[in-house]
Structure formats: C-alpha cells, structure tokens
Amino acid sequence: MNNNIGNGISRQDAYEKVRGVAGYTHDVVLPGMLHSCVLRSPYAHAKVVSIDTTAAEALPGVYAVGTYKNTSSRLFNASGVMAFLAPDLNPVLDQVIFTDCPRYIGDEIAGIAAETEEIAQHALRLIKVKYKKLPTVFDPLEALESNAPLLHPHISSCNTPGGVYTVNQGDVATGFQECDVVFEGKYKLPIQKQAQLETQAAVADFRRSGELIVYSSTQSTHPTRIILAHIFDMDQSKVRVLNPKYVGGAFGVRIGMSGKAEAIAAALSKLAGRPVQTVYSREEDFMASDSRHSGYVSVKLGAKKDGTFHALDIHAVLNTGAYTTYGIEVGIVLGNLATSVYRMPHIHYDGRVVYTNILTAGAFRGFGNPQGTFALEAAVDGIAKMLHKDPLELRLQNIVCDGDVWPLAYPCRASGLGECLSKAAKGIDWKQHGKFDAVGRFRRGIGISSGTHLCGTASSACAVLRLEFDGSLQIATGTSDIGTGNMTAFQQIAADLVGIPLERTYVMWSDTDNTPYDIGAHSSRCLYSIGLALEDASHKMKEKILDYAAEMLEESPKQLRVEQGVIRGGNREITVTELADHAHRREIQFVTRGFPRNNGFTATWHAVAADVEIDTYTGVVNVLKIVAAHDIGKAINPVSVEGQIEGGIVQGLGYALREEMTIQADGRPYNTSYHTYMLPTIGDIPEMEIQLVECPDPSGPLGAKGTGESGMVSTAAAIAAAVEDAIGVRPQEIPMTPERILKILKD
Amino acid sequence: MNNNIGNGISRQDAYEKVRGVAGYTHDVVLPGMLHSCVLRSPYAHAKVVSIDTTAAEALPGVYAVGTYKNTSSRLFNASGVMAFLAPDLNPVLDQVIFTDCPRYIGDEIAGIAAETEEIAQHALRLIKVKYKKLPTVFDPLEALESNAPLLHPHISSCNTPGGVYTVNQGDVATGFQECDVVFEGKYKLPIQKQAQLETQAAVADFRRSGELIVYSSTQSTHPTRIILAHIFDMDQSKVRVLNPKYVGGAFGVRIGMSGKAEAIAAALSKLAGRPVQTVYSREEDFMASDSRHSGYVSVKLGAKKDGTFHALDIHAVLNTGAYTTYGIEVGIVLGNLATSVYRMPHIHYDGRVVYTNILTAGAFRGFGNPQGTFALEAAVDGIAKMLHKDPLELRLQNIVCDGDVWPLAYPCRASGLGECLSKAAKGIDWKQHGKFDAVGRFRRGIGISSGTHLCGTASSACAVLRLEFDGSLQIATGTSDIGTGNMTAFQQIAADLVGIPLERTYVMWSDTDNTPYDIGAHSSRCLYSIGLALEDASHKMKEKILDYAAEMLEESPKQLRVEQGVIRGGNREITVTELADHAHRREIQFVTRGFPRNNGFTATWHAVAADVEIDTYTGVVNVLKIVAAHDIGKAINPVSVEGQIEGGIVQGLGYALREEMTIQADGRPYNTSYHTYMLPTIGDIPEMEIQLVECPDPSGPLGAKGTGESGMVSTAAAIAAAVEDAIGVRPQEIPMTPERILKILKD
C-alpha cells in the first residue's frame, strides 16, 4: 500500500528551484506597483523631535511618504504570537509601523513609495528628522539594573516585559544538599542571524474597496493576516495573505511578519492607492529583522557519587533587543527543554528576557533550545569529569525514559534517545574519547551531546482534500513550504493513504483565502500536526471513495481496496478516475476535512557526536566529522529528513564556530552582510553521517515526528565537548573563534 | 431579522468600478509576461497546404510561434458543455487550438508570443501560409442540402452535429385537425453579438513544474479549468483558473472559455516557458467568439373558436457556424421554453443546429428563448387577429397555470404570469391597443408579450462559509460576478441568515483553487442555485454559533437569537466577535458547507409591453416606453433586479431594432466594431417601467428566482407586436431596421 511513504522520492519543488523559474515575493509584479524604501534610525535610542517630509513628497515619482503621523499607530507584535491566542496568553504589544521613538539603530522612522527604487532612495535623503538622543543600554544584565534606561516605560516599568518564567519540580535547595558533586558554569551566547537567502519582502495591494491583499515571504500566512487585520483595524475576512508560491528560507524569522515588510508595504499602499513592494536589502535584513537571542545561561547540576543526576538549576537572561516579539516564549521553551532531557527529582529554572537597544531577537530554529542545550551539556560533561566517568555512559545512565515524570505537559515518550546516543557514539568511534595525544600543533578531540526538541503545536491544524472530477487530488493546508519539503511529504501521505499515484496529487501553496486556518510552518510541526490532519482527511476520503465504489460495483465497501488509483474487489475493478467522473455526472464532489486527533506536542530525540581537530597555532577548530542520530518516529521521506538534519548541523556548526553579530559601541551592528557575517561555506562542512532511528510515536501520523529544528539543537554542544576533549577546557562562549580558542590555550 | 434582504443596498463592487480601480484580466501583469497575437484565416473554408514560421521565429523578441504542428491537437468544445456532464450527455468535440482546416474567416491558424504586442504583430506578418480553398456554405438551410460542403466530415456525416431534437406532447396532427383556426408563420433571426465591454482575454502561466495558472475573464472558472485540463491532458488539480477579480461583462460569451483566449495563452506559455497574455482586439472579439444563433423559426398554432389553444408545432433551424459549442443545448432550450408558456394538449417541436462557414454561435442571454418567443408571440397575435380577440385576453385565457401538465421536467409553478400580464398592460395603458389612428407620418402602436425563462441548473452548487476569529464572515462560492450584482446579493443573504452586519461579510471572487466546484455565472442561476447553497450554509453556521454561545452563556440554543452580530438570550448577551475569539483560543474554527435542497430548475415569468411610434417617412421605429412586469419570486435586492431587467430590455431593444452582424459574400462579417455594429445608445433607451411581482417560489432561496436573462427574452416580441399594432403588419425578420420597415410599408 505504501508506495511513497518511507521512500526518498524527489522534492516536487526541485525542478522549478533548480531551473531558476520558481517565483518568490521578490519576483511579484502587480499593475501599477510602486517600490519602497525605509528611513531607519541612526540612533540606538532617541525621540523624534520633528520630521519634515515636504521635500520628499514633492519629488516627482513619489506617491507616499509614511511616518508615525499618517499611518496606523496601533501597537502590535510582529511575531506570530498575536495569532496564537491560547486562553491565558496575552502577547506584549510594543511595536508600531513607524515610530517617533526609535529604540535601536535600524528602527523604522519613515517609508517612501515611488515609481522606482532610485526615486524612493533619493526621496529618503530629503526627509529631515531632528532627534533627541536618549540613554542607551546594550547588555541584558546592565538593562536589569535599577538605574538602566527604560525602553518601554508606557508599557512596562522594567525592561523585562514577561517577568520571570519558572519551571519547578521537587526542591532544588534540598536537592543540591543531597548531592555528592555539583558542577556550576555560566555560558555566553551570541546573536546568530538566520541569513536566509531571500531577504524580507512583501507586496501589498490595499484596495480602495477596503480589501488588503499581501504577497509575502511569511512562513505563516494566517497569523500574518491576523496581525495585519489588527494593525489596520480591518475585518480578517478582508485581508488576504499568500505565498507567491515559494519562500526563500525562513528559519523562524518570518513567523508572523517578515520583519515589518508586510506592514510597511500595506501602510504605504494605503497612502499611495497603488500596490507597493517592500524588499529589504541584505543590510536591512540583518539589522532590522529578528535574530537568535543572545544572553547568558548559568547552569548548576548536582549528582550522586554513582553518577545519578539529582538536582538541576538553570538561569537564563536573554537579550530580546528593542522589542519583545517571541522573547517570552523563547525563554519558556529554553527552560522546558533544558529540564527535560535528564531524569532528576529536583529541578528549577528561571528565565527572563530583557529589552536592550539592539536589534530584536525572536524565533530562530531551535527557539531557545540551542542556548539551553549548550549550557546543560557542558554541565553534564563537567559532572563526568568530576566523577571520572565516561560522558556517554553518564548520559545513558541519566536520560529520561518512557513514562518518566518530567516538567512538560505532554507525556514522556523517549524510547529512541538511548539508541541515538549509542549510534552516534558508534559512528564517531567513541572509544577514542579522552585518548587523543595532547601534544603537537594539531589536537583532536571527540564529544557528544544528547538533545530533545518539541514538535507539534497542532493547534488548529486542518487539511482539506478535494477529489477532482478526473480522479486527481487537491491537498489544501494553511501551511507554507519554506524549503523543508513538507509539501512533498504531504503528497506522499495523501497519495498512499487515499490510494492514488503521487503524481496525481497537487498541494496548494499557502493562501489565507484558499486554505484552512493554520498557524504556519514552524515549531517542527508541519509533518506532525498537518500530517495528522492529513491522515484524518485521507482516511475520510478513502472511505467516501470506497462507499461510492461499493454502490457502483454492488459490493460491500469492506470487500474493496484502492491502490494506485484502482479500486478492486470481487471480480470487478474501476479506476478512481472513472469513479470521479461518474460522481461528477451525478453532481457529487468528494471533499473531506481532516483534523489532528490530538492538539499537543511530542518530543523528538537525538544525539550528536563531533570529531574535531584544533590548530593550536591559529586557533582554528576544524570539524572533521559529525554523526547525528535522530529519533524521528518514522521517516516519511528519508532523503528529506536527512537533508533537514544536515542543514541543521551546518547551521549549528556556524553557531559553534563562526556566526556572531557583534554590536559596536554606539549600538550599531558590525556585520550586516554576507561578507562580514561569517556563515559556514562549503569548505567548512565536515563529513556528516546521519542515522535515522525510527521509534514510532503513537501520537504522530504514521508514527512520524517533525524534525525541522532538531538538527540545529545540539551541534554546538557536541563541538564544544570535542574541543574540551582536545584541549582540556570547555569554552564558555560561542562562537569558538580562533581568537577565543587562542585565548583559552594561552590561559 | 432581515436588515438586508429585500433592500436595494448599493453594489459592493460599485466603488471600485466607479473609481476606475477595479482590476480585469486586461490589467493582469505577471513577471516576464509576454504578449500575443493570433493569425486568423482569411478564408471561410480552406486547408492549410503549408505553413512556414521560420522568419517569425527568428525575429528578435519572439518567444513562441504556435501552430497545429506544435500545440495540442486534442479536440475540445470551447463552451462549458464539456464540464456539464450529465449522465447521458456527450458533448461534440470539434475544435482545436490552432487548425490546419479553417472553417470560418477568423479561425485560429497560429499564435505568436513576444516581448511586446508590436513585435508579435510584426512576426505575424512573417508567417507564410499556403491555403487550398474549399467550398463554403453560409446559410443553414443550404447547409442541410445533400450536396452542401461538409464542415466536419471526420466527426459527422452531415452538418447537423446534434441531429434533431424534439419535444412532443399529445399528437399535433390530430390536434390541428381539431382546431377551428390555424396560424402559420416563419421568422428569420439575426446574429446578435454580446459586445461586452471587456474583450476576450486570458493570462496563462504554464509553469515548468507542470502547473497551469490562468487569469481569465471567464464566467465559469471551474468549467474552464476542466476544459483546459482536457486540452493539455493534465490533471484538473494542476490547473487553476481565476477571475482577477472583475469580469467586464459576459452575457454568455464566456461560459467555458473566453473565445479561445485561455487555450491560446496557455499553449503559447507552454511553448515560451513564460506567462503569456492574450487579449482579443474588438475586431477579434466580434469575429471569433460565440454569438447568438441566427436562423429560422417556423411556428404553427391552432385554436378553438373560443380562443383556447389546442395545438402547437415549432420548427427551428439554427446556424451554429463553424463549431458546435452550445448549439445543441440552445436548440433544446428554445424548444422547451417556447412550448411551455401556453397550455396546450398537442405539442411538437423539432430543432436542429447546422454547421456553416461563419463565426460560431453559442450561449447568449436567453439561450434560444428570444428566438422562440419572437416566433411564438407572433403566432399568438396572429390567432387573436383571426378570431378578432384582444391579444391580452387571449394570453390570459391560455397561459399555463400552477400544476398544469407541460413538457418540462420541473413542475409548473406559474403563479405570477397572469399578474405580470395585467401589470404590464396597465402600465402601457392597454386600452389604447388597436385604437391608434392609422394616418399621418407618425403611427403609434402598443403590443404585449408573455414570456418565461428557466432559472437554475443548481448542479453542483456549493457555498462555504468561514467565520473568522474576529467574527467577520468569509463567503466562498465557485461562481463569478460578471456584473450582475450576485456577490452583493450573496452578502445580503449570508448576513441576514447568519445574523451579522453586511459590512462584516466578504465574498471570495471565483478561483478554482479557493472556491468549491460550481458551473458558473449563467443560466440565471446564481441567486437561485448558489442562493440555495448559501441558505443552507448560513443556517448551519447560525446553528454552530448558537450551539457554541449556548455553552458560553449556559442557556439552551433555542433561547438564543443572533442579530447584527449580537447573540442575546436570557439576561446576557455576547457578540459574535467575542464568541469567535473565544473559540479561536480553543482552536475551534467554524466552517460550514451548504448545498441546494434541490438540483433542478424553476421558471421565471414575465410580460413586456411596448409603446412605439413609427416614422413612416424614414422607417425608424421609436420606442416610447417599455413596461416589464417580472415574477422573480422575491427580490433580494430590488435595485439590482430592476437593473438586470432594464439591461435586458435594452439588449432586447437592440435585438429588435438595430443589432445584426451581417455576413458578406465571401463569409467575412461586415460589422466587427462598435462603430459598425449598431448597439443601442443612451439616446435609444425608452422610458422603462419595471414592475416586480413577488410570488414566492417554494423551490428557491427565500422564495427567490434568478432574473439574469429574463429581461431580454420578450422585448423584441413586444416591440414587434407594437409595430404590428401601428402599421398592421407583423415583421417577420429582425432587427426591424428602417430599411425593412420601409419595405413593409411599401409592400
């Protein structure tokens, strides 16, 4: 029956992407469309005293100049958090489209819409702004001090918009007293940027009829729609957001809005009365869209003499920059996941996100988990060292097992984690650990890290199947394919579960008008949550087909089966095409709506092992090999799954060794281009071995779990462990640049 | 409860149309879009001996040259008939995109896609074609002769693709023997052209991934999709057809495809690998898209001495031109409707449509009924004259009544026809009939006509309602608004039946990807068929809302009511917005699908009375006043209904007096522009009085019936009756041009 599920069939979007004919938001052209650019604050914190747009408005070819004076001043949150309204969740609304109080260098002051980008850029230079500079703060610890400048005094009397989030289990104070050894460490994490290929972009058509249509690179069209309806005080039904088929990478930076591209384009379109395209330059993309939270994570881990973990205390202070966006949720996920890998009676976590005058941090693949995992795994290795235990054995001894009590709201189903550790260790040749010579210029080391990630957020997932009159099948879901291949996986699931050939299925790309509500492509949720909805819709469709066929063939539906588009039973057979045509001639169309059988999360598990070689002369860490073993439940498309994990490893390698946005003294980010921001290149990619562990998850579709983020989570921790194995010291800060490695070696 | 139903609220599309910002297919621009033009046959019947496109292809800027050699040769039918697959209906497939055997002047030989229209036009002149001329026939009676040239010998051994369609009731031969008087007449009908404002157009994007997206001015996106999928041998699910919101008039000429614009654009896009826009010039629109069937209708009506009608025999020979398209169905509707206005024991009809070497005839508002009605009503007036009876009284004596036996498949519900006749007569001051002086230069006369039209084709109608999380309502139907106002009526129905304000509803414009299957905006069916589906979906939505509210308010659903977005019951109230937000936070979305409670037709009824003045010196017929009384069941929006009827009257007036495409000796149509084709202008429009008769139809939504076509049906007959009253002779040919009137006066 499963011709496609489990097979690594080619991505259905591959042809267009390889041929260069795939269309992105950058490519959208509408009749009469204007181009835009944005005036951004040169100060990290200031008050606009006056703004004069007269000269800009007078320039021929300029159709609109938007500022805080003439555009919506409704407060919003550019992340998707506004759309994910759990009963008790009230997102922090602290952003406006154009501000009169910039809070970081790059904050949006004004926008221009003009016939050409050149005219818009020219007009931008004609805007006269007088600023009054305000005091600034860039470090989150400093921002917590009582005399620190307040960023949002009208919203919050302190710089921690979400207060303190805690996780508690047992009593850590007593717990640590009962421990034989206690390890403590404090780790500093950098600003990492998604640096996705397609910069933030939107084309908005604010029609005079009161409708707003937005082509966007968002990874969550429906939430984007909700946010735009809020900003412009419109009915959601009159706002349409769609991917113009493709999205050029996302990694979290486009959940909700693509920076503010949608809101800027819409505000300018409303003023100009014509469609407006807003495309961020690479510099704007770096400086003015969400990044990964930098900050500090302290960890205290206590164990018994035999190695049994007993108490864990984690503190996180995360720098969310000028606005909250997803900050609060990132702190929550960090705490929940860092406390759910190892079994422990006593657990405490407290995390806070802090406003500072730098660019905003928000969602980024892993969503707080890489930060927490980096610290936690250092502590695990620290305990191993203190007890002279093998780090692998210590992990196997302490990892959570099926049915364990843990702080999370979903049941602990961790069947595959032990196997992941064993496979990763085997792949990296673990017996070499601690055995490399510590002499000569080049030092080798290997390290390992356990990890988990959540997958899910099934909320509101829905899939609609429509059998066309020729027997082909339309699959509609409200999610995007941001490059991960989920659309192909959807085709595999629907084709096999309904019983038609894959090439006769077609997936609709996300468009709020033509797809059911969905919160988007993130949280490693597409395959899991939408997959569940699709499973349900497919079963219902198959049932409809068989019921109809049973009447046609005068058989019981139970006697019939449908495979590869052919329905067989008794001595007769008909094709799904014949059946669909027959039904069409009788005015019957088969449409099914499917929903997930659960609305929760589940956990994925993985272990990553790294083999590194350090040049002690230059400080360069050369990763020789990464082995990653992932328990993904069931690989619907093994090639896609491996691709996801490989991509995550490379991004994790960048996080470990190269990537960091640094902030200069005035608050200006230094590296805002591919030239200055050190992404891994092809030459940095090590040998990678991906091991898929398939422990079917009973809550997932066909046992599957999502793996969009998990590849990223533990890579930096594993590399740091290998570095420690090589040079005897655990780096407490990433990226582990040559400079920092040399400093460690020198110390 | 009904704040909107029954009110003549403004059309929701009015603002954009009046401001000139409404977007049509002509306005669509896609990235890299090419422009196209079509090489059309200069001969009415020929064989392409050779075609050389080398020079055209070599011209810089030319991306594709399509001919019969390199484009799909699958036979199709450009009308929607391919999509309306009743169990026993097999449409005649006799068209290809580009032909090597042109059958009329204008037939498509080749197409060019180029950077600009100018380059395309230049390239067109570089194509070298050698034709071998074939014998031609232009008159349908001649085409029936045994030695006539055959147009489609490979499909049909005669020029009547559908054979002979008959309607039979009783035995006419016996019937006529039993009559006291028998009237016989033969009428010649012209080619009328829809002449809608927006010429036929499409923009096709045939993606290399194997998907086809077509923006089109079609009035039936879903059927267009089915036809395109057939032509290009693709899965329907991979073809998307959408109105780019607005359609610039239709009148039947865009059911199925817009001429062949969609197929031409798609074929060229497939060759070029880029999007292609095909926009017909006004000349092409006239010469190469469907028109109203010209032809001959003979009628024989027999009555008893007391005026009781007893036998009716009608013969129709319709000229369908070079291809069948809707020809067969037009002949069927003509016969069915002309035999269902008057009660009669003996009825016979036979109709045939005939191929000739002129432009194709197809669907046009009224769909055969104006032709049949013109002949039938002449016969009724003929009997009145023979029996010296008042034509109004004779009609009232013989019209069908509720429950009468008739040839149609749906029950006779004719409650309003008598009232229509009385009101039209009263409005025109009927007592003057036959009393005007027959002296002097100017002669006045008044006449009346009864009429019916079918409304329905509910087949596959469906409406989907989605309550957004802010309490606004999305209405999705697969139909288009071709200018008739049905979208506004849908909003009125949904708003009132669900219980929310009209401005909080939003209607999706037709797009096969985002709307349920529907056969389109034609057959006077939108308000009736989709209205029924919407009624069902609205009731279901209201039920969902009240059930949810009942839980929130802890009341029984039966105690609650929802009006204007507020749910009340007991002592509490909540808004639909609060309810939707509450549900959203619990991951519940309200979506309902509604279907018509019947899949059939119903009849609308009307009477039209005309008051004319004839200048016997010039032969000009000046219509002084038209009174039209229409039984439309229930006027959902009386202003829109009156507008529809007025538009129909004006088009009927053109049919009666001015409009005719004439064919020259070689088969070339003479009038292919607004300059030469005599549409009525503002100066020709008479005083019009519209009387709405509301006899609720139990089969319709809220008792309503559709009235898209009925205004057109009887106008010509009423004017001809008035002319007869004025000059004593019934014209047997329309349009009643000055030349023809002078000839009658001279004879």
Descriptive report:
The structure is a homodimer of 747-residue chains. Chain A starts with 13 loop residues before the first helix and ends with a helix. In chain A, the strands form 6 sheets. The first copy, chain A, has a 7-stranded mixed beta sheet, sandwiched between helices. A 5-stranded mixed beta sheet of chain A has the order 6-14-13-12-7. Among the domains of chain A are: 212 residues, Alpha-Beta Complex (Aldehyde Oxidoreductase, domain 3), CATH 3.90.1170.50; 137 residues, Aldehyde Oxidoreductase, domain 4, CATH 3.30.365. The radius of gyration of chain A is 27 Å and the shape is globular. Chain A is an alpha+beta fold and 747 residues long. The mean pLDDT of chain A is 95. At the A-B interface, α1 and β17 of A face α1, β17 and α15 of B.
Provide a quick synopsis of the model:
2 copies of one chain form a homodimer. With 747 residues, chain A is α+β, with helices and mostly antiparallel strands. Chain A contains 19 helices and 25 strands.
